[in-house]
Amino acid sequence: MSDDKTVVQSSVAEGGKDGGRPGRRAPLIIATAAIVAAIGVTAAVGLGSPAGDTPGAASPAVAEVSGGSDNTKAATVLDRPFAKPDLVLTDTKGRTFDLREQTKGKPTLLYFGYTHCPDVCPLTMSNIAIARKQLPQADQDKLQVVFVTTDPERDTAAELGKWLPAAGDPSFTGLTGDFSVIQAGARSIGIGIDPPKKEKDGSVVSMHGAQVIAFSPTTDQGYVLYGEDTTADQYAADLPKLIKGENP
Amino acid sequence: MNRRTTVLSAAVALAAALALTGCGSGSDEPRLTVNGAFMPQPVNDMAGGFLTISNSGAEADKLTSVTSGISDDVQIHEVKDQKMQKVASFDVPANGELKLERGGNHLMFMNLKKQPKQGEKVTVELHFEKAGVLKVDLPVEAPNHNPKQH
């Protein structure tokens, strides 16, 4: 597994990791392409102009990334970080939660999923919970793990409040709200989610996001992506760096 | 006495003959084995199930349904682009395998009658179009168990 990580990181490093150095800005496109290739992606990469004047802000639908079975297993450091989505939703206790406001200056992991998901959503939450427990208490307190539902009709605050502590950890924040708001927030960081669709037999087909995104405590930008194959050990290895806003 | 022996041996011979046809002396029947089965300890009233079905026969088969005492509604789900959808069957190719693994296609147990815990076993019956029924025990593993990673 660590081999995969090395491969991905080195392909990123070729053009991107040292992007701060003068004269190395040009390889940005190459680096992005490398990341995209590395994650085994169907990508519509909007490399055109960044949205507005906000540096590093994501243009809408920047990278439509869908995880295949052979996608990367660990960190992908983004060359162009995403602004934190402007999401104001409802937490598991029914209170208003302003993502930008309440996670400002804190290392944050953001994931979009749903509770009627037997596999990847609880797997992801469980892996992060296991990795978090290996941190010193002070770091555990800093780390914000935010789970935003992609199925708000079924995932009420109460439902999320039951599921999230069991799937992950009681310290995790679960958010629900209007689907269109959630979808727009996800899209702003390149996560495509479709609304839950009711089938003729009454079953509901929902979908989860393809990645976990880590936001830096120093810039509040989303700068690292994790695919669904990331293990608890891989999260555990990276978390101490993410907590400082460093590249894993 | 003698007659009795004859009848007995005839029965044995017949049974043996039946058994032979039963296991498919020809190579054109599906021959299925299951391995790597497990269920991650569920979080709520639903659970996933994962296993690999190998077919060493020269004929393909189909997994058409799954039954279990733990749920009256066990579905088979296909996963595409982060969405899972109920399907009617999964192909088990001739001389090939059907892999149900984390992040991909899986069994889905709805409305669990009880919450199985790590260390327990959940018995399921896999129903195939040709090979009939295979009974398999799924050991319940940690919620994040993923043999793909080892």
UniProtKB/TrEMBL annotation, chain B:
Query: What Pfam families does the annotation carry?
Result: PCuAC (PF04314)
Secretion signal span = 1-21
Keyword annotations for this protein, in alphabetical order, are: Signal
> Which InterPro entries does the entry mention?
LpqE-like, Lxx211020-like, PCuAC_sf
Does this entry carry the keyword Signal? yes
Q: Does the keyword Signal apply?
A: yes
What is the protein name stated in its UniProt record?
A: Copper chaperone PCu(A)C
- Please name the taxonomic classification of the source: Bacteria, Bacillati, Actinomycetota, Actinomycetes, Kitasatosporales
